[in-house]
Specification:
With 475 residues, this protein is mainly α. It has a single domain, classed as Serine Threonine Protein Phosphatase 5, Tetratricopeptide repeat (Alpha Horseshoe), CATH 1.25.40.390. Helix content is 43%, strand content 6%. It is built from 18 helices and eight strands. The strands form four sheets. A two-stranded antiparallel ribbon has the order 1-3. The protein has a two-stranded antiparallel ribbon with strand order 2-6. Strands 4-5 form a two-stranded antiparallel sheet. Strand 7 and strand 8 form a beta hairpin. The longest helix has 25 residues. The N terminus is likely disordered.
Length: 475
């Protein structure tokens, strides 16, 4: 395995995680790693665990890949990451560091998917199915970030490189088209559904439910002919056919209490915060693996979002705070400081039973299936049903009702109320080719629809390492 790590380091210039699990179903690192050949189910699981750990790095979904979706939004402002916040980035000036981590995750997945030494079994099929779901998730985030959205019609030949084969140090992959990348994502997710867990040992593993939820989002983003119906179908499957350990955090008939909603995000006890029915997939941040993900007091979600964080610098606008409303349980996850007027979120609390960091990062939630269904209903023209279900969702949180006069905006507003500080907003606006308009607390106050900067630049180091990799036009 060491030779694989050295090669990956050379190609992508990132700090990879050299780890494997003592128990094959625990995503935790060990200090021993003696695998010249992947020839057992246990070793195959170890490589999959490495892929999970790699995507948990602070440069990936351990912090920054998630943070950028908020920093670039219209209802949050910051005193750090100012090049990003002010849309001041190019191939020479860029704070985006997740490109290499996504591809190193993909390489680990490829080693699992393409392995022919380990005989087929139900467990091997499950391991390979998870690897395909994780590879699809990584590609979806890459194409969502480094390419124009499909519905924009802009520069659709500038997708991201597709690397699917066994590792080859000599390859210099060019960009695939956006359509080719989406086709691969969909294929991987469909294959993943065939073999993945129905119910995993913990919510740290990708399952059939996770694959269906990602597919609903993929189809809402691609929006080719028939995609809205497919998005609806997959959202319905999550809602109607998932195992009993998946369930909504709140319904119109059973609204959640303020404390119940707070506990989901902020409980100190792992038994309360982890593996909850609302969670579809969460990243494991144990005391054993946080240093392999470079997570610490100075670089983590908590250090930036929380009021007492060591680099506390992410704030929400008064307009957003007021629009949520005092009767909405979600406003209680915002903390307005009386002395300064600054508004912080409590979603990424620093203290947990395991240490002074967020114990698990919730990446996929059941609530998204509910909101994806509403969005798909809107797209297929069932606007009355969409509005009714949107108001039911808002009522389940104690939120304000919508008139439907601008139903798409209502849906996107409710999504932001639900997923603020979870990295959604920038990508929600981008997929509908909408501008970012900041009413206050801004230096760069607007990013016009379809602006070049909705696509992230590939940094100079990545371009220099691959002669066939081309920069997105305009940078």
């Amino acid at each position: 395995m060491k030779k694989f790590l050295i090669i990956c380091l050379t190609i992508f210039s990132v700090q990879l995680i050299n780890s494997c699990a003592e128990d094959e179903l625990d995503i935790t690192p060990s200090y021993q790693d003696d695998m010249g050949t992947i020839d057992t189910e246990e070793k195959l699981q170890m490589f999959l665990n490495n892929a999970y750990l790699n995507i948990t790095n602070v440069k990936a979904f351990g912090a920054e890949a998630l943070m950028f979706g908020d920093i670039l939004s219209d209802q949050m402002y910051t005193s750090s990451y100012l090049n990003t916040a002010n849309f001041n980035y190019n191939e020479l000036v860029s704070e985006f560091g997740f490109f290499g981590y996504m591809y190193s995750t993909i390489l680990y997945c490829n080693m699992v998917i393409n392995n022919e030494l380990v005989p087929n079994s139900e467990n091997v099929n499950r391991i390979k199915a998870e690897a395909k779901i994780l590879r699809a998730f990584a590609y979806f985030h890459l194409v969502n970030s480094y390419s124009a959205t499909p519905s924009s019609g802009q520069n659709q030949e500038y997708g991201v490189p597709l690397v699917l084969g066994d590792f080859d140090v000599t390859i210099q992959p060019p960009r695939a088209t956006v359509a080719e990348v989406y086709a691969q994502i969909i294929s991987d997710l469909e294959d993943g559904i065939d073999g993945a867990y129905d119910t995993a040992p913990t919510k740290n593993y990708l399952t059939k439910t996770a694959a269906r939820l990602i597919l609903s989002k993929v189809y809402l983003t691609r929006r080719a002919e028939g995609d809205a119906q497919l998005a609806l179908n997959y959202a319905n499957q999550v809602i109607n056919e998932s195992p009993s350990n998946y369930a909504p955090i709140s319904t119109v008939d059973n609204p959640i209490s303020v404390q119940g909603y707070l506990d989901y995000f902020t409980a100190v006890s792992n038994s309360v915060s982890e593996n909850q029915p609302e969670t579809v997939w969460e990243l494991d941040l144990s005391t054993d693996n946080i240093r392999y993900a470079n997570i610490g007091s100075n670089l983590s979600l908590s250090s930036y979002y929380e009021r007492t964080g060591t680099r506390s610098s992410f704030y929400f606008t008064t307009n957003f705070y007021d629009n949520i409303g005092t009767q909405d349980v979600r406003q209680n996850l915002l903390e307005k400081q009386a002395s300064t007027g600054l508004i912080f979120t409590k979603k990424w609390k620093r203290s947990s039973e395991s240490g002074n960091f967020v114990r698990d990062i919730k990446i996929l939630r059941y609530s998204e299936a509910q909101l994806n269904r509403i969005e798909a209903l809107y797209l297929i023209g069932q606007t009355g049903t969409a509005l009714s279900e949107l108001n039911n969702f808002a009522t389940s949180r104690g939120g304000n009702l919508y008139t439907g006069a601008n139903l798409l905006n209502d849906i996107l507003t409710e999504r932001y109320k639900e997923f603020f500080a979870e990295g959604y907003r920038f990508y929600d606006l981008k997929r509908y080719n909408l501008p970012i308009v900041r009413a206050s607390n801004c230096t760069a106050c607007e990013l016009p629809a379809n602006d070049l900067r909705f696509v992230f630049p590939i940094n100079e180091g990545e371009l220099n390492s691959n002669a066939n990799l081309t920069q997105y036009p305009g940078y």
